[in-house]
Amino acid sequence: MRLLLLIVLAWPSLAQDFTQQLWEAVQPIYGETIRHPFLKGLTQGDLPGSRFQFYLEQDARYLGSFSRALSILASKAPKEEWAILLNRHAVETLEVERQLHQSLLDSGTGAVASAPTNLAYSNHLLVNVSQRPFGEGLAAMLPCYWIYWEVGKELKKRGSKRPEYQRWIDQYAGEDYGATVRQVLEVMNEEAAGMSPASRRNALRLFETSARYEYMFWDMAWREEQWPP
Fold it and tell me: Which of 74, 102, 108, 182 is the least buried, fewest Cβ under 10 Å from its Cβ?
């Protein structure tokens, strides 16, 4: 009985710290991400322009899937204010981030097809927000928000010699974007308070998988990944 009481008393603080648990779980993945040559090339200014353009083209396509996934997730939100927030983010993804990408592209995305990693990551998000409970779907979406913010802040410290790379860095290091990420972190922590241990484990697994896809996305751009013949 005493042990049960301690568990019950500790539960709110455990839920409050859930996003911290998520972040600690992906530290090895994030460490490899921030050391990736694609990101190093952004700050050093020697990232080949063709690789940056490949990234922008693929990311512009990814944003369409990310926005659709947010809309699906919003439809499952247990609170009206969360639904409004996520639907707003879905619109902003297309209006704000896509505007940045298109302004940096040498040309439009045209008929560019999704690379294998891009397609796999997009499907991972769409499947899980559709089939899993709200909290688990949110955990799958969270690394795209959070890792970009952490990467942006880290690269901002180093800066870049190339204006187009610095502009990209500034977008994700900015306070407006940081406020957006904090909103989603608050939703995740609040939702975690009512999730079962099994659902929290699933959320952690999905968060880790998406964090790996974030690494793979930049690696995809570095290799200018193509479909096999």
Answer: 108
